[in-house]
Design brief:
The chain is of the alpha+beta class and about 130 residues long. It has a single domain, classed as START domain (Alpha-D-Glucose-1,6-Bisphosphate, Chain A, domain 4), CATH 3.30.530.20. It has a six-stranded antiparallel beta sheet with strand order 1-2-3-4-5-6. The longest helix has about 30 residues. It is globular and about 45 Å long. The two termini are about 25 Å apart.
Length: about 130
C-alpha cells in the first residue's frame, strides 16, 4: 500500500497475526496521517478471520475476511462495515465520498493480496512468520 505509506507500527507488525492480537496501522488518507488499532476478534483457520477497530477515526469498523476453496483456487470475500463519526454530517460524507473511497482502497489491497498469493511472493510472508 505504498500510495498511502501504510505501515504496521505497533502490536503484531510482522508475520501472521493471531486471535486477540492487535496491530496498529499508520497511513495517509484524505490528506492526513491516520492511525488505527485493530484487534483480531474471530479466527477460524483457514476459512475466516475478523478484525475490529479498537482505536481510530471511525465511530466503528468491522472487517470480515472469508475464504472458500473453489475449483481453481481460493475465493476471498471481504465484508467491511463502518460507521463514520460526526453524526448526520458523517453519514452524508459516507454516502457522497467515503464509502466509494474505502471500496477502492479494499479493491487495491485485495489485488495486492492476489498478486502475492498467485506468485512466489507469498514465500516471503511465511518466512517472516517463522
Amino acid at each position: 500500500m505504498a500510495h498511502t505509506n501504510e505501515q504496521a507500527v505497533a502490536g503484531t507488525t510482522s508475520g501472521l497475526i493471531e486471535l486477540q492480537e492487535t496491530v496498529t496501522w499508520k497511513a495517509k488518507h484524505l490528506f492526513k496521517t491516520r492511525v488505527m488499532r485493530v484487534k483480531i476478534t474471530e479466527m477460524k483457520k483457514p476459512i475466516l478471520f475478523t478484525d475490529e477497530m479498537v482505536e481510530g477515526d471511525f465511530k466503528s469498523m468491522k472487517h470480515e475476511h472469508h475464504f472458500k476453496k473453489v475449483q481453481n483456487g481460493t475465493l476471498m470475500i471481504d465484508l467491511f462495515n463502518f460507521s463514520a463519526p460526526y453524526g448526520s454530517l458523517g453519514n452524508v460524507a459516507s454516502k457522497i465520498y467515503l464509502t466509494n473511497y474505502l471500496k477502492k482502497l479494499l479493491e487495491h489491497r485485495n489485488n495486492m493480496i492476489r498478486e502475492y498469493a498467485e506468485s512466489e511472493k507469498w514465500r516471503f510472508v511465511l518466512q517472516e512468520a517463522r
